[in-house]
Amino acid sequence: MHVVTAEEMRRIDFDTIQRIGIPALVLMENAGRAVAEEIIGMAPQVGRRWLILVGKGNNGADGLVTARHLLEAGVEATVVYTVDPASLTGDAAVQRDIAAKLQIQAMRYGIDTLDWRDYDGVVDGLLGTGSKGAPRHVYAKLIEQANASGLPIVAIDIPSGINADTGEINQPCIRATKTVALAFKKRGLLQFPGAECAGEVVVRPIGIPVGLADEHEVTTFELNDKALERKLAASSALRRAPDAHKGTAGHVLVAAGCRAYSGAGLLASTAALRGGSGLVTWAAPAALVPTLVGHQPELILVPVSDNGQGDWDGTSIQDLLKLITGKQALVVGPGMGRWNGDTEWLREVWESTTLPLVIDADALNMIADAPDFPEWRRREEATIMTPHPGEMARLAKLPTKEVQRDRIELTRRYAAEHGVTLVLKGARTVCATSHGEVYINVTGNAGMATGGSGDVLAGLIGSLLAQGCSAAQAAALGVYLHGAAGDRAAAKRPSTRSLIAGDIVDEL
Ligand SMILES: NC(=O)C1=CN([C@@H]2O[C@H](COP(=O)(O)OP(=O)(O)OC[C@H]3O[C@@H](n4cnc5c(N)ncnc54)[C@H](O)[C@@H]3O)[C@@H](O)[C@H]2O)[C@H](O)CC1
Ligand SMILES: [K+]
After folding, report:
1. In the predicted model, what is the mean pLDDT of residues 317-326?
2. CB neighbourhood size of 411 (10 A)
3. How far is the CA of 44 from the centre of ligand 1 (A)?
4. N or C end: fewer C-beta atoms under 10 angstroms in the chain?
5. Cis omega (within 30 of 0) for bond into 193
6. Structural domains present in the chain
7. pLDDT band at residue 246, thresholds of 50, 70 and 90?
8. Which-ligand-closest: CA of 142?
9. Is the shortest distance between the CB of 374 and ligand 1 below 6 Å?
10. Mutational test site, ligand 1, from 54, 95, 131, max ligand atoms within 8 Å of CB
11. What is the pTM of this model?
12. What is the pLDDT of residues 448-475, one digit of tens each?
């Protein structure tokens, strides 16, 4: 489940070839056979006439190996060279010579006539992890024609045109039906917009002894990024350590909601119940409480003295801090609104409690407005911040599109700098721990971009903290379960558009 950058992949390849001694041609043979096997599985539905687009590097060489294995399986394979085959070097030249000896049908793009109607499917062996910037001339034209052909495209390693590390798209970019990721998923396959060009992503081993070298691989290569898939979410790495239970089912305190946004508090608190906490106390401005009674009888509703308007403005912080006794986690922010002095108010909460803390929504904006946030006490206790891209832009003082450009590195940097666990929401939510581990979520759908969805996540994460999860476990598991619940809710509807946050709570 590790997710790697192009550079990490090159280091692993190099170590496998140079230190362990598995020749590159062996890895390449395994790569090409794996891609061929995926295509052979598709051939009955798609058809048996495949066009293999071959670039000048090892991605293209993989394509030549794929062609050979397809032909052995009785699938027609025709090679299209983007460059003069004579110019190929190294392992690509070796594969070229083998293909020539086997008289594999080959043509030169731009010189021979290529009629896409003669084929059922396309293999993208143009650009892999060696790609830099936008596909140039011949590659660009070939990518545009392949996309326009309407034929299913199987991309080798990554769709040509995406940035393997950030998921940025350099137009034109192959829109793949399926991407066969070699050995590990590349980061760009898990971050939009690259993720939407990848189609179905399958990881195929190519002979790199990952399993055997697990300890070695993590230590030597400092591989810190993992895809949050079912296997990982269910694994011991994210299951609560048995002794963490301490026999408590956990009691969460939620400080949330104001007259304008009382629903946010209800969603966050109810999600905390659904997340498995035994008890959930929702602290809300006093004037609001009478209107909230009975909505969710399982909740403990506690008024915090306010200005009589049902807002947090003028509430007594002592009232809130008194409630902390006997709780195992505190969620602050959903639907709280803003008021004069709110940043100082939050700093006092942040510094005076040692409870595991979830900071969401308006509480994040309070931090974004704090002139001296780096001077706040560096909390050793679990502290999880859950911004959406807009809130992250304010926190990091960057334009939102800059936040989205390289979500993984930005999240990792901010988390390490401030000693917090950071959850950057959005398609493929990124969780980074304060010591540099990153989890990229693969559950969830566009229907979850709906009011209150973030409140549900904050309550759920608080609930997991209260039940003994570490910050990393609570953030990663919370994000995974939140998205999985959203997927279950979406599956029950004709379209994701009608999804509302309460549906996610119901599916938890
Ligand atoms: N041992 C290994 O490393 C293995 C690698 N595998 C496959 O190899 C590719 C990576 O191959 P590499 O030769 O490094 O580069 P590419 O084939 O991805 O790049 C092609 C080539 O094209 C030129 N180029 C780069 N950017 C552009 C651009 N924007 N437009 C046009 N041309 C461009 C540049 O000269 C490159 O050299 C990896 O993805 C795997 O598919 C094996 O699978 C396993 C062993
Ligand atoms: K490719």
Report:
1. 92
2. 24
3. 30
4. N
5. yes
6. 3-218 (3.40.50.10260), 252-507 (3.40.1190.20)
7. very low
8. 1
9. no
10. 131
11. 0.90
12. 999 999 999 999 999 999 999 999 999 9
ipTM of the complex: 0.93
Two structure tokens written together for 110 = 């731009």
Q: How many helices (H) and strands (E) does the chain have?
A: 19, 19
Q: How far apart are CA 163 and CA 167, in angstroms?
A: 5
Among candidate residues 423, 445, 429, the one with its CA nearest the CA of residue 495 = 445
| CA 10, 14, 16, 19 torsion-angle sign | negative
Close Cβ partners of 478 (under 8 Å, ≥ 6 residues apart) = 275, 423, 457, 460, 461, 463, 464
pLDDT band at 217 (very low <50, low <70, confident <90, very high): low
Residue 128 assigned to a binding site: yes
Whole-number average pLDDT of the chain = 94
Give the containing element (helix H, strand E) for 53.
Answer: strand 49-54
Residue 219 has pLDDT above 60, yes or no: no
Q: How far is CA 162 from CA 82, 140, 184, 223, 329, in A?
A: 18, 12, 16, 21, 41
Q: Measure the CA–CA gap between 366 and 278, rounded to whole angstroms.
A: 30
Ligand 1 pocket, 206 CB below 6 A?
yes
**What is the pLDDT at residue 213?**
47
- The residue type of 475 is A
